[in-house]
Amino acid sequence: MPKGYWIAHVEVKNPEAYKDYVAAAKPAFEKYGARFLARGGAFEATEGKRWARNVVIEFPSLKAAQDCYHSPEYTAARAIRRKFADAEMVLVEGVFD
After folding, report:
1. pTM
2. Which residues of the chain have pLDDT under 50?
3. Which CATH number does 4-44+51-93 carry?
């Protein structure tokens, strides 16, 4: 089964308050087997809009990625994030190895 991924581009408007989102999202990520492959860090914007923060999260499957996003735990965290950051996010299925 192919893995699932969250690919997110984020502009944090309030870095101190954003920490509340990170803490609130952690239980959902742990519950659904999330593994961060990229979380901020150096990048090169080659096309399109330049986002300050780029995140790639791997899940055991696309279903797990979807379940995490729609879970009560992440729904609460998402409400916090939306107060302090703008984001674009897609959930995608990986390819078979």
Report:
1. 0.93
2. none
3. 3.30.70.100
